[in-house]
Design goal:
The structure holds two protein chains of two kinds. By secondary structure, chain A is α+β, with helices and mostly antiparallel strands. Helix content of chain A is about 20%, strand content about 30%. Chain A has one domain. Chain A is globular. Chain B is α+β, with helices and mostly antiparallel strands. Chain B has one domain (about 20-170). The chains are: A alpha+beta, B alpha+beta.
């Protein structure tokens, strides 16, 4: 996949170029969760101009690998460019994103690992609670998602108009 | 006679009557309670709130009708989860704040009350009536699982009540 910002020279602690970096992200790195449905966005009760992700914005799929993107040091436009890469004929609109420091995922015992698959900067968040009792699993995951929605580093960015996949 | 009518503290209004009692007086009391509840539902403010929640629920049914409605491979909304959420919302105290209604990854209904930073309650209602919940009140947090019957599970109602009271205190 062609990706102009993959070559951007950013450095992490290991000194490797961030554009090609693969592996576990450290606490200070920033990742974003792209939001493709208005269903996952709530208005902030105390500030009508602000928004908050609903807990279901962080609901992991059945394989418990939450898809995010590594966006440390990218500009706003560059982050939306990453978002454009995630659009497909079945996932045509991008409404918002929830930026979070990896430290906040780690507070919930989650791990962010950049794997660049299926697109450059793709990062999986793993380590979700997975007890054998399904009731317990559901409520633990729910509690984790709720914590992420109220994390200190959370920055929710909602587009005035969604980015739409061109025909 | 053993009949309890749980108050939604902070509002002073009542939920649906809750009783296993079979005596005449218990029956009359139950009827009276239900009449009060119906009367409240005819008031503009209260009926509008209930209507709002139901409208939200219907909108979610339309949005989450097909699989992958969230772009991350979510299941389509389960009709039984929808029906249980409807029961839940009908049983909600008439003056309780209206939740944000949405669907979740597993095809369940999500109800969210957000009162500000780290003051929130979230619930998932599944097709079998399982209510998974989690709440935050500042540094305090809790979670659990309850089952929906004719009324809102008391742990959930207590959490909501406490969050509402906190919100009123710090307003």
């Amino acid at each position: 996949m062609t990706n102009w910002f993959a070559t951007r020279k950013l450095t992490d602690k290991s000194g490797a170029g961030v554009g090609t970096f693969k592996g576990r992200l450290t606490a200070t790195e920033l990742v974003t969760r792209f939001i493709f449905t208005r269903n996952n966005i709530a208005k902030d009760k105390n500030n009508p101009a602000a928004y908050r992700p609903k807990p279901n914005a962080f609901d992991p799929p059945a394989d418990l690998e939450l898809s995010t993107a590594h966006v440390t040091q990218l500009t706003d436009d560059e982050i939306w460019s990453v978002g454009r890469l995630t659009l497909t004929p079945k996932r045509r609109k991008l409404y918002a994103r929830a930026d979070l420091k990896v430290a906040d995922y780690e507070k919930s015992k989650l791990v962010a690992t950049r794997d660049n698959d299926p697109f450059e900067r793709h990062t999986v968040v793993t380590g979700w609670p997975n007890p054998s009792d399904p009731d317990d699993r559901k409520s633990q995951i729910l509690a984790t998602c709720l914590e992420l929605c109220h994390a200190d580093s959370l920055k929710m960015v909602v587009l005035d108009e969604p980015i739409v996949l061109a025909d | 006679m053993t009949m309890t009518s749980e108050a939604f503290v902070g509002t002073g209004l009542i939920t649906r009557p809750r009783s296993n009692a079979a005596s005449d007086s218990a029956y009359r009391l139950r009827q009276l309670s239900e009449e009060i509840r119906k009367h409240l539902l005819t008031s503009l403010a209260v009926s509008r709130a209930a209507e709002c929640a139901m409208t939200g629920l219907k909108a979610v049914r339309a949005e989450a009708a097909e699989p992958d409605w969230n772009g991350y491979g979510a299941k389509a909304l389960d009709p039984d989860a929808y029906a249980n959420a409807q029961r839940f919302l009908e049983a909600l105290p008439t003056t309780a704040p209206v939740p944000e209604v949405s669907a979740d990854q597993d095809g369940e209904i999500a109800l969210d009350w957000d009162f500000g930073h780290r003051k929130a309650l979230t619930i998932r209602i599944d097709p079998n009536g399982r209510c998974s919940y989690a709440w935050l009140r500042g540094k305090r947090a809790s979670r659990g699982t309850e089952w929906l019957d004719d009324e809102i599970p008391s742990n959930i109602l207590r959490a909501l009540d406490q969050l509402v009271r906190d919100a009123q205190t710090y307003r």
